[in-house]
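Task: complex structure prediction.
Instruction: return structure tokens for all chains below.
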Amino acid sequence: MHGVCCMIDVCDLKTYYSRGFLHRTSVRAVDGVSFGIEKGETLGLVGESGCGKTTLGRSLLRLIEPTSGRVIFDGTDIMALSRRDLRRFRPRMQMIFQDAYASLNPRMRIRESIAEPLRIHGLENRAGIGRRVRDLIEMVGLNEEHLNRRPYELSGGQNQRVVLARVLAMEPEFIVADEPTAGLDVSVQAQILTLFRDLGRDYHTACLYISHDLGVVRAMSDRVAIMLKGRIVELGPTTDVLDHPCHSYTRRLVAAPGADRGFSRPAPCPAPSGSPAMVEVQSGHWVEAAAW
Amino acid sequence: MPGRNTALYLSLGVVLAYCAVALSAPVIAPFDPFVISGPPLAPPDATHLLGTNDLSQDIFSRLIWGTRATMVLGFLGAVVSVVMGTAVGIVAGYYGGRVDEAVMRFLDVMMTIPFFPLLLVLTIFFRPGIYVTAVIMGLLGGLGSVRIIRSQVLSLAVADFVVGTKALGARDGYIMARHILPNVLPLVGVKFVTSAQHFMLVGIGLGFLGMGDPNVVDWGQMIERASKNGGIVLGLWWWLIPPGLAVTVISLALAWFAYACEERINPRFQVMRV
Amino acid sequence: MRMDDPLLCVRGLKVGFPTADGVVKASNIVDLTIRAGETLALLGETGSGKTVLGMAILRLLQPNTRIEGEILYRGRDLLSLPQEEMQKVRGREIAVVLQNSGTSLNPVLRVGDQIAEAITLHRGLKGAEAEAAAVELLDQVRITDPARMAREYPHRFSGGMRERALIALALACNPSFLIADEPTRGLDAVTKREILNLFSEVNRGRSVLFITHDIEAAASLAARVAVMYAGEIIEIGPVDAVLSSPAHPYTRGLLESLPAKGMRPIPGSAPSLIAPPPGCRFFPRCSCGAGRCEIEHPGLVEVGPGHYARCMLYD
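Output:
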């Protein structure tokens, strides 16, 4: 299903929560997910609220501890690392959250927020930090006067740029973006996404782009995975999956208004071939066999 | 806005004035508070601004020296209370799980024991000096702050910026000190001021019940002595009223200061959405 | 009043919020009319003043807001009504579906009780009758198992369900005019479709002012659309005309920044409403601005049948 030299290789990842009074009921937020992302590639992850996509994103970075499975990042299984080793891995894989304002410490100035990752990992000395911060703030389209402000003085879009600067400070190889433009206005969204896409290309970052907005996913991702109830039900190149969806759920999603224009009628899907769980209907385009 | 700032500066001024008095007591008190310096139960005059008590001690000097005990009990107690409450609250709220459970159960048990009677029992048994009394008050009183701080830390610990900093690879200790603590400081600050006020009053109460250190002048003792030895009956207002007035003023000033601070902290974070 | 007289007529509305830094001119000379049974979409981004306009109609803004102009509802100026009269209008004649924030429903009251409260207030039904009416409303907005959900608290409701409950609350008294503030914000694509379908179903024949930033939603529900920018209406007209052949550069830029249409961002950001630019408010970001635009403030000019734009290009 994925190339040999993947940057990220996820194998049967499961994250279960226990709920209820005596922790009896189990919520299967992520229920056996497998996929791979190449260097420089953006994989979109689409699904309704509650399908587990946010949990998946956080589980990949071990911000939530998964129950089982492997995540192989550039040859190393992150799940097997100790907490101390994991901490040293962290600069290479980062996350961008939905609410930019909540992602920044409200009492820290922008300058300090951006410098923080550099300080924590000792990546630069004092003078170096100042220079890097200035470079970063310009890279994301803001200017030096914003450095002295606090998050509540900036707009949502501006805060999200600061978050980008903070994340890019460590030049990560993999970014999980969890609905970074939800709640932002359309024109601001366009600005942020264009910036994100350009920087991603410059830095050759692998990216998991989580969203429920199909239009955005279509514009940002090379391939897309459709998630339902903790499982991936369809996976393949973006135009393929969105223009010719095979799974019934994908069809339902794509038909909703606010999806995207230019949706052509689904071609009849060819006969299945491959292992029972996911079948390859076309080159690179996989569907969960159970119900399509 | 004139109203809010005057409240802040005025109350702060009063508090600082009290501290200044406490610090400079040896210098500004006309007499040693324990020596006989004139006729007993004398009304106020030029030398004895507030007259003398039944032991011929100068009331004015005693009032000034008494500021020390009140300040120590209030502020030292508040420091202990806040430090303990914050440290425990942050650790419990940040780690959650078993650590939090253990702390909460301990708290549940401790909070059923009423504060003042417990304090009384401890002081009767051990007869501590004011410093130790202040520490005990701080420890007992700090239990209440733990809950409040912990609640706020619980919501902070899952805030995106904390998770984000964890994702950066920061250590827990760093996160607690650099991200959690500054965000609970406003709460802590207010708690500090209200605790100080509370402990001052409790300290006066202890003194009134005779639990205070007899070698230290405190206002509670003064009120007790005055009321017991005929201050009320004989209408000796200069003996009875000043200590009560003194504690009332500082108490109000602290309350006012806490109130003014809270007002300033909150509006800063309001953003108007159009 | 004749049949085709407008139901709601806003004239020269100016709203200002005094703040520590100056007066925020959230609304600047807005003129708007809505006919009976018509749905008008008020399209704009954050800071455009659309929510303020909606709230101003029902006088739900803060007490120290400065409002000028007229808001004529069935011929009566709402801005000059005394409080008791205004309270009779609110809920019964004109209702609001508020933005679905965490506190749009009282978290400590059961949902059924909150709806019953509205019913009791305006329809006079009490106790069991009001509760029954509340359950029926929840059913009308397609909440499954309405009797049970009426007894639940808001935190048990998902985002989509809360939106339905808010719609039910607004429809409790069958108002003639409904103001809906961002009913599809934050909902995922499938839920959004369901809510929009529901919305058009329950509001047949009712006048609706549909405040939104979602262009697709406006396109699917409204007959006419008014685009707001920096507190002004900069384009207004039939929804097909405005969205397929936009006249104003901002509207064009907005449509082009949609991911499906190329995702070309509009450079810059919205102006401060405390000190807005003197001429055209969009001039600093406009790619076709001329010298005139900077100095003169454009008025609304007709660019097609029923289609107006506030731009010097057409003057």
